[in-house]
Design a protein that fits this description.
The chain crosses the membrane at residues 55-76. This protein is 54% helix and 7% strand. It has helices at residues 13-22, 26-29, 41-44, 52-76, 86-90, 93-101, 106-117, 149-152, 167-174, 183-188, 190-210, 216-233, 247-266, 269-275, 278-284, 286-308, 321-326, 337-368, 370-386, 394-397, 401-413, 447-451, 471-478, 494-511, 521-524; strands spanning 7-8, 11-12, 31-34, 37-40, 120-124, 127-130, 146-147, 421-424, 430-432, 435-437, 443-445. The N and C termini lie far apart (111 Å).
């Protein structure tokens, strides 16, 4: 074998290959041609070139993509024809600045856009806003519109009826709750509301004796919390019994509003907070711990109620809202703990901040206008005198014209949420005047703009219950009073909120003469953010 030489016709093959390879620099010489493109393989395989070329490619791709995207959004997007400034048409970062950096101020910028560009404006690359109190197409029940997931995900309640996007799924989730919140059921609950209002009046009586000022904002939010928790699962939080009316609990609501705004833009902030160790959250923001404790408490309450009602199959109005949903015809897949917990959390949160704020702002305006407070007091005392000194029931209070006017004006001027309400018609286009709005486009309206429209409500910043006293005027104005929303998504708790408002105002102003303490409208009442400000009485 050793003597065998690999030769062909005297040609030593191995020696020839060895010589050829040694004289041929493969990496410098190999070139490949593909469809006329000459690729230098030594450059392609050179390790030193790899870190540079991909970065250079990215550096070219990103600006090119952004330029092309900008051109598309400004000139070729389905919404490119609609009026509005260029920056919000280019990027959602415009809204992010007003909402997250300035803290809920985009509603002011939207109003400025309307003043400059007209009743319909493009406020985001993919969203329109209409400021016309007579245009109601997105809220007609027959329209069967959806909510916009991006906007409503802020509240972390996409599995609850409030945050449900699809119209039909919302109907399935909402229907079981409707019987629980009827006028008849609220009337049955009236003694409990009276009892809770009585606790507040006792606290005011104590303050009257000691001369201590009362933070009426915290007091009314505690009242609202105690009412809604007692109504929902017959276990009041008893915040009215807290020495400072649970101030920390109400600061928590403000924290949640801020977190929710960031969560809307990024989609993971709420989960991030829930995953953080409590000690770390406490270092950054103590009120955020209260928010997480609230989430945990609602979850524990829900689990306890589910366990309590396990096996119950009644069809009557249930003892609590959880049993009401468990006994309903809602699909079993919707009766999981997560869904029920989110429903309860949404009901409690919504019934606390909005109702409490409306009541406190109404009280402020009455106290700031003593002649209006006196007129209300005289009406209440006269009606009570005719009733042989017995306080009037909720239904009897509804018959008092000036109290009715005060409640309506309070609901108008206190609009608790300045944020818009986007709706989407996924099936067909909507029409506003000569504009055709493409199907699937989020279209928003803002109830605050309607409530402060000077054409409908002259001198809208003025607290004027008198505008509601005349029957003909009231009939005309009620069309535009939408504090609880419109259409199929109207607030499920509106009957409870109204009863609470009437009973609290009646008992407080029939019994007390209030005065302002270190409070002024500009600093403590007027809304500069899409959140609610506290004030003292």
């Amino acid at each position: 074998m050793e003597s065998i030489k690999t030769t062909v016709n005297g040609w030593n093959i191995m020696e020839s290959i060895k010589t050829a390879v040694s004289s041929w620099n493969i990496m410098e010489s190999i070139k490949t041609t593909v469809d006329g493109w000459s690729i230098n393989m030594d450059v392609l395989y050179s390790p030193s070139s790899w870190p540079i070329r991909p970065l250079s490619l990215v550096a070219m791709i990103i600006p090119t993509y952004l330029i092309l995207l900008s051109i598309y959004r400004l000139y070729f997007h389905p919404l490119a024809k609609f009026p509005g400034p260029k920056l919000p048409a280019l990027t959602g970062l415009y809204e992010f600045y007003y909402e997250c950096i300035l803290g809920g101020r985009y509603f002011e910028e939207i109003l400025r856009m309307h003043e400059q560009y007209g009743p319909i404006v493009r406020i985001r690359p993919d969203e329109l806003h209409v400021n016309d109190p007579d245009w109601n197409e997105p809220f007609k029940i027959s329209s069967r519109v959806s909510k916009w997931h991006w906007y409503y995900r802020a509240f972390g309640s996409s599995q609850a009826s409030f945050g449900t996007v699809d119209h039909e799924l919302h109907r399935i989730r909402r229907s079981p709750q409707n019987p629980y919140f009827t006028v008849a059921e609220v009337q049955k609950f009236e003694p409990e509301i009276e009892h809770i209002v009585g606790i507040l009046c006792s606290r005011l009586e104590e303050a009257k004796k000691t001369g201590e000022p009362v933070n009426i904002s915290n007091a009314t939010k505690s009242l609202a919390t105690d009412v809604v928790t007692e109504f929902a699962f017959h276990k009041s939080y008893n915040l009215l019994s807290e020495p400072d009316f649970a101030a920390g609990n109400h600061n928590m609501t403000r924290t949640f509003a801020l977190v929710a705004t960031w969560h809307r833009h990024f989609g993971f902030i709420l989960q991030l907070f829930e995953a953080m160790p409590r000690w770390f959250v406490a270092l950054t923001d103590p009120s955020a711990v209260a928010m997480l404790d609230f989430f945990d408490d609602i979850e524990n309450q829900t689990k306890a109620l589910i366990a309590k009602h396990k096996g119950h199959t009644g069809k009557d109005i249930a003892a609590d809202i959880v049993q009401q949903m468990l006994d309903s015809d809602m699909p079993e897949v919707e009766k999981n703990t997560k869904h029920l917990m989110l429903e309860v959390r949404t009901i409690v949160a919504a019934g606390t901040e909005t109702s409490g704020n409306t009541l406190s702002v109404t009280i402020f305006h009455l106290v700031a206008n003593p002649e209006k407070a006196l007129r209300l007091k005289e009406e209440l005392l006269e009606a009570q005198k005719k009733n042989h000194g017995v306080p009037l029931t909720y239904q009897e209070l509804l018959q008092l014209p000036y109290l009715n006017a005060v409640v309506s004006e309070g609901l108008r001027i206190s609009t608790s949420g300045a944020g818009r309400h986007p709706r989407i018609n996924p099936r067909s286009a909507m029409t506003y005047k000569s504009w055709t709005i493409p199907a699937g486009t989020p279209v928003s309206l803002t109830q605050k703009f309607i409530h402060e429209n000077p054409t409908i409500f002259p001198n809208p910043r003025s607290f004027s219950p008198e505008r509601w006293v005349n029957a003909a005027d009231r009939k005309r104005l009620e069309k535009y009073l939408t504090p609880f929303g419109r259409g199929s998504r109207v607030c499920v708790g509106m009957n409870l909120a109204n009863a609470e408002m009437y009973l609290a105002l009646a008992r407080i102003f029939a019994s007390f003469d209030l005065g302002l303490y270190e409070t002024n409208r500009e600093d403590d009442i007027d809304q500069y953010h899409d959140f609610i400000k506290d004030f003292k009485l």
